[in-house]
Design brief:
By secondary structure, the chain is α+β, with helices and mostly antiparallel strands. It has helices spanning about 5-15, 90-105, 105-115, 125-135; strands at about 20-25, 25-30, 35-40, 50-55, 75-80, 120-125. Strand 1 (about 20-25) and strand 2 (about 25-30) form a beta hairpin. The chain starts with a helix and ends with a helix.
Length: about 140
């Protein structure tokens, strides 16, 4: 099996055990305030692919736009290969996703990161403004 198909198969099994739902090459998990998104994106120019993680802040979604990486208020890309040129395994990606959830998976921890200026570079101005000015319960 080609590396991307094997990765998708392995991730599906591992993420299902972590209560993620799947839609095509995107997995997501919701809580009261956020949706954590994990995505395998195909390259338009080659057989390469990109691994994306993101957060949708529910209060910033004026209407339901769907769960996809482009609708994320905060996102980051994980390299698909390690420094030796080998594809990253599903298990390593799960570890990265667990860290992502720990750092950004709750609205309160997300707010702290925003106040410290430690959000990923691909964070919308609207998300930063919301997280640094709105009082959270």
């Amino acid at each position: 099996m080609e590396p991307k198909k094997q990765l998708i198969y392995d991730l599906t099994v591992l993420l299902k055990a972590k209560k993620y739902k799947k839609n095509k090459q995107t997995w997501y998990k919701e809580n009261d305030d956020l949706i954590v998104v994990f995505n395998i994106q195909n390259s338009c120019y080659s057989d390469n692919y990109y691994i994306n993680v993101g957060i949708i802040i529910k209060k910033l979604q004026k209407e339901h736009k769907g769960i996809c990486i482009t609708n994320c208020d905060i996102q980051e890309r994980i390299p698909e290969k390690n420094k030796y040129g080998s594809y990253v395994s599903a298990e390593v990606l799960i570890q990265a996703l667990e860290l992502w959830e720990k750092w950004y998976g709750e609205i309160k921890s997300l707010r702290i990161k925003a106040l410290e200026g430690k959000l990923p570079l691909q964070s919308t101005a609207e998300a930063i403004s919301f997280l640094t000015t709105v009082r959270l319960a």
